[in-house]
Design goal:
With about 250 residues, the protein is α+β, with helices and mostly antiparallel strands. The protein is about 35% helix and about 20% strand. The chain has two domains: about 5-80, OB fold (Dihydrolipoamide Acetyltransferase, E2P) (Beta Barrel); about 85-240, de novo design (two linked rop proteins) (Up-down Bundle). A hairpin with a 4-residue loop joins strand 6 and strand 7.
Length: about 250
Amino acid sequence: MSRTFKTEAVVLRTIRYGEADRILHLYTREFGRLGAIAKGVRKPRSRFGGRLEPFFRLALVLHRSRGDLHTVTAAETISGFPDLRASGRGIAAAANACGGVLRLLDGVDEPNEPAYNLLCRYLELVDADPEGPAASGAGMVTFRLKLALAAGFAPELSGCSSCGSTDHVTAFSGAAGGVVCPTCEAGSFPISAEAHSFMVESLGRPMSQAPQGSSLAVKQAGRAIGDTLEHHAHVRLPRPEERLAA
């Protein structure tokens, strides 16, 4: 059996290793999260050039290791997303998305094609307009909501997540995993109708049609999904709405 295999991947993060190598955190279409090492990549005449960097979408050939790090033997660029790299806002949005995938899907060594496609689509949108809606606080919260859905941790928004009531769901509980009614609101925080609608629309619309909202609504939605992931996925992510204004 050949120990060489091919995969398509987005580079989530890189770490310098030794004098000339680099460790890559990858999210792949075919295998989910993978770790790899690119030997000699930091040498001036490396055959990989500058493509083994965060946010690149690549076609890779890897040599399978018995440990956690496979070895990169070939890499071709599918998209380098050059325009987002020229914008501080674009870089922040891409880093937020890749960081979310890295933490939420860490240790998941099986494919999640919806999550992979979502990440690629989001990077495309940010690259197309690094100062636009996708790179805003609202766009980043929408990405986080959709990523939670792809990972199986979407919040309950149709009715009280504790008792099922659809009346007066004016608060959100991360522990309960969704909106709650006044009877079940212990440990919750108030959430506006606008924030509730923002979350519903974010999950229901394509990423290219993501809603925009007031700074308060985006902040509440960001807290809601953050609390849900912290309680149910045991992952704490920085709140994107605090990095960029909506």
